Amino acid sequence: MQDFIEIMNVFQEELSSVLSMANLTLTLVDLVEILIISFLFYHVILWVKSTRAWNLFKGILMILLFVLIAGLFQMSTILWIAENTLSVGLIAIVIIFQPELRKALENIGGRNRFTSLFSMNKTETAKFSDRTIEELIKATYAMGKVKTGALIVIEDEILLDEYIHTGIDVDAMVSSQLLINIFEKNTPLHDGAIILRGDRVVAATCYLPLSDSMSLSKDLGTRHRAAVGISEVSDSLTIIVSEETGKISIALRGQIYRDVDPDFLREKLRYMQKRNQEATRIELLKRRFKNEK
Questions:
Q1: Are strands 237-241 and 200-206 parallel, antiparallel or unpaired?
Q2: Among residues 1, 145, 176, 231, which is most buried (max CB within 10 A)?
């Protein structure tokens, strides 16, 4: 502890000497305050990045960018609208982010959450392997042949914990036999969706949000609407096996692709896998650079 205080004092002296050139002063309390704010801001960004709030946050940033451009070019009408809607906009942000804010507060107040708040490493989403892709394709088209309905959600960057909690914990390696057994008719786990995280089936019988998109075909049932619904609020990929026709469809980013063949499904899964692997590689490079420093 004494060593830490000495390091902080040395750092304060060096920083104070730099700030003195600009007629600014910095005390130890100011330094601690900056560190606390930086720490909290860092974890807020991590939280936003791992939820659907990230897409909403990017939309807000785009609006702020337009306002900035309007300010630079003195667009008086846009500035007037922005100024008069600022207070309403703050209330709207709270309403829009209400589910995420509530979940975050629940996590902070939950048991064993305090220690995880100080963890500097984000819990990484596992990446699925080539074996998992082939097992998924094998099980999907085997169920399609006998018209066994299925709903398989594959998690990507946005965590699906709030939907996982609606189901029953499974935590098992992905295999075609397991998937077929889960969706076998009249079994306890066949109703609802299963959620995959990496190479593991995390939960079964999960409830998903239904899409209210008017562009969806009227002949699509609840299973397909649920698949589109989860794809609208996350970056997940969902595989649907129709119980009526046995045809395979996938839902991705609010779009549904119907009656797809194994090659098309494999292509989408490999693209998702490659994107995740690239993100992992960048993260490893960042850590290596940090360790070298």
A1: unpaired
A2: 231
Give the closest residue to 182 by CA, choosing from 204, 206, 160, 208: 204
Query: Rounded distance, CA 206 to CA 186, Å?
Result: 16
Write out pLDDT tens, residues 163-213: 999 999 999 999 999 999 999 988 888 889 999 999 999 999 999 999 888
Q: b/e string for 184-209 if b means 16 or more Cβ within 10 A? A: eeeeebbebbbbbbbbebbbbbbebe
Round to whole Å and give the CA distance between 129 and 187.
Answer: 28
Q: What does residue 271 show for φ and ψ, rounded to 5 degrees?
A: -65, -45
The pLDDT mean for the chain works out to: 78
- Give the span between the Cα atoms of 202 and 193, in whole angstroms: 11
List the one residue out of 10, 6, 12 whose CA is nearest residue 32. 12
Could you give the angle at which helices 262-292 and 130-145 cross, rounded to 10 degrees?
160
Distances (CA, A) of 2 to 6, 8, 56, 57: 6, 10, 44, 41
Q: 69 CB contacts (<8 Å, ≥6 apart)?
A: 75
Residues in the chain: 293
Helix, strand, coil abundance in the chain, percent, nearest 5: 55, 10, 30
Distance CA 206, CA 199 (A): 18
E strand or H helix that includes residue 292 = helix 262-292
Query: What does the DSSP 8-state code read for residue 239?
Result: E
Residue range 69-127, pLDDT digits in tens: 878 888 888 778 777 777 677 777 777 666 666 666 655 555 444 444 444 444 444 57
